[in-house]
Specification:
531 residues; Pectate Lyase C-like; 20-stranded parallel β-sheet; 3 helices
Length: 531
């Protein structure tokens, strides 16, 4: 028979374990994501025994089954969109219930296509394609094209939440501003291994219009976009948000009438450009490559070349906020390399002595940049190789160079200036005519991959005019990649997963009960042996 103290301890532990179990069962557990599979390319919202993309999004928005589409869950959902062309055809505007016109997303989800080359979502010219409203949305392996938003912003996508594009393309859309993508005040836009190309804005921001968002481009391309007034490539406004461009290329964009073919920074924000290429952008009046009107701009190990404008072909620094480190600004097609007061952190090269390069390690007025054409040199984006005899080779600062170049190739020893690291012990390539970029550039073979291995990204040949077919391709698996380091399934606002805390509490309590019970049984056994 148990002694009274041991019996009391065992009973108390057991009661605690039962109470913890009841509390765990009573506490709301997070629902698993619903997986909704689209099985028709038709644009419809009815009950005819299939699941269209519009119906799938409505099911995810409302957490209710629509036609044969599975009901969404309380948390983020996943919509699988097989290969095919999905053309929006239900006309209508000025509503956000996903009933007509664009696809309105009001709940967090991932839309997973087969690849940007094979899963095409086309606005059909009736409205923009996607409208993200206060939600976290991941678009993976899709092309967004054929959207139209005359008189407003966001021809392809209008973002008013958190939008992440991975291995995707936004091409051939039109709007007054942000013909490809617009992102609003205090929102977030992230592009990874993606392309924004061939979009046309009647006013500003042919590719991307950043109206106060946090915008990040990684291993991505903004090319061949056009704006009638300012910023063929990227336009930033408002004194909020930021712009970060890493391992990316902004090329072949045009501001037809006025300023900034490539990038126009009009708001007092922080902008960083690292391991990137700004090339072949054109402005009708001024600032072919980059125009900093307000804010600060730090450019590190990048290449700014072949840009064109009657005044200031490369970089214009209005508020004296541009800082260069290990960067090439050389050989603009028209206009000076730099205008305004540029600050040098050393190890920079210009070709016309206009960038205020006063550091002892700078190479001002140097005609030996020896850049190859913009082409596929390996890696996810197009680059200019350093050819034999380039003064930029081994002229960088190893203490400030990134570990890899724009392609993901390791920088070793005395790194090179610019976005491209020349081979250490091999002959650098000779200049050749620039071939059309391929749809699937091969990954670098002479070096380890970047820290986050890129899936083969979209590339594009800029033409400056929108087309009805995708000009970029990318690869993506047909099922979501849980290892991707992006918010692939964000919890709803205010939601947290507390089940782990209760699980630990339950395990600890029941373990204590078992240990104490075993201890009591041992005491009984010992007592029996002594009697």
């Amino acid at each position: 028979m148990l002694s009274r103290p041991i019996a009391l301890v065992v009973a108390s532990a057991a009661a605690f374990a039962v109470a913890a179990l009841l509390l765990f069962l009573a506490y709301p557990q997070p629902a698993s994501a619903a997986i909704i599979t689209v099985d028709t390319t038709m644009d419809e919202l009815n009950s005819d025994g299939d699941c269209s993309l519009r119906e799938a999004i409505t099911a995810a928005n409302t957490d209710v089954a629509v036609d044969v589409c599975t009901a969404g869950s309380v948390g983020p959902d996943i919509i699988i969109v097989p290969a095919g062309t999905y053309v929006l055809s239900i006309a209508g505007t000025l509503e956000d219930a996903n009933a007509t016109g664009d696809l309105d997303v009001t709940d967090s989800l991932t839309i997973q296509g087969a690849s940007a080359a094979t899963t095409v979502i086309d606005g059909g010219g009736i409205d923009r394609v996607f409208h993200v409203l206060s939600a976290s949305v991941n678009l993976q392996g899709v092309t967004v094209q054929g959207g139209a938003a005359p008189g407003t912003s966001g021809g392809g996508i209008a973002n008013q939440g958190v939008l992440v594009l991975t291995n995707s393309a936004v091409t051939g859309n039109s709007a007054a501003s942000g013909a490809g993508i617009s992102s609003d005040l205090l929102d977030t836009l992230i592009l990874i291994d993606s392309t924004v190309s061939e979009n046309v804005a009647s006013s500003i921001g042919g590719g991307i219009y950043n109206n106060g968002s946090v915008v990040t481009l990684t291993r991505s391309t903004v090319s061949g976009n056009t704006a009638t007034l300012h910023a063929g490539g990227i336009y930033t406004l408002q004194n909020f948000g930021s712009l970060e461009i890493t391992d990316s290329t902004v090329s072949g964009n045009t501001a037809t009438t006025f300023n900034a073919g490539g990038i126009f920074i009009a708001g007092a924000i922080t902008v960083t450009i690292t391991n990137s290429t700004i090339s072949g952008n054109t402005a009708g009046q001024s600032f072919g490559g980059i125009y900093l009107q307000q804010g600060t701009l730090a450019i590190t190990n990048s290449t700014v070349t072949n840009n064109s404008a009657p005044f200031s072909g490369g970089i214009f620094d209005n508020p004296s906020g541009v800082t260069l480190t290990n960067t090439i600004v050389a050989n603009q097609l028209n206009g000076a390399d730099c205008s305004g007061t540029i600050t040098s952190n050393g190890h920079n090269l210009d070709s016309d002595n206009t960038c205020n390069l006063g550091d002892p390690d700078d190479l001002p007025n140097n005609a030996n940049a020896n850049l190859g054409p913009l082409q596929n040199n390996g890696g996810p984006t197009l680059t200019h190789a350093l050819l034999a005899g380039s003064a930029a080779i081994d002229a960088g600062d190893a203490g400030t160079c990134p570990a890899t170049d724009q392609r993901g190739v390791a920088r070793v020893g005395q790194c090179d200036i610019g976005s491209y690291e020349a081979p250490a012990s091999t002959t650098t390539p000779s200049p050749t005519a620039s071939p059309p970029p391929t749809a699937s550039p091969p990954p670098p073979t002479a070096s380890p991959p970047p820290t986050t291995p890129p899936t083969t990204p979209p590339t594009t040949t800029p033409t400056g005019t929108p087309t009805g077919t995708p000009t970029a391709t990318a690869t993506a698996t047909a099922t979501p990649d849980p290892g991707t380091a992006i918010p692939a399934a964000l919890p709803p606002t205010g939601g947290t997963d507390s089940s782990s805390g209760f699980s630990l509490l339950l395990i600890a309590a029941m373990g204590a009960a078992l240990v104490l019970t075993a201890g009591g049984s041992l005491a009984v056994a010992r007592s029996a042996r002594s009697e």
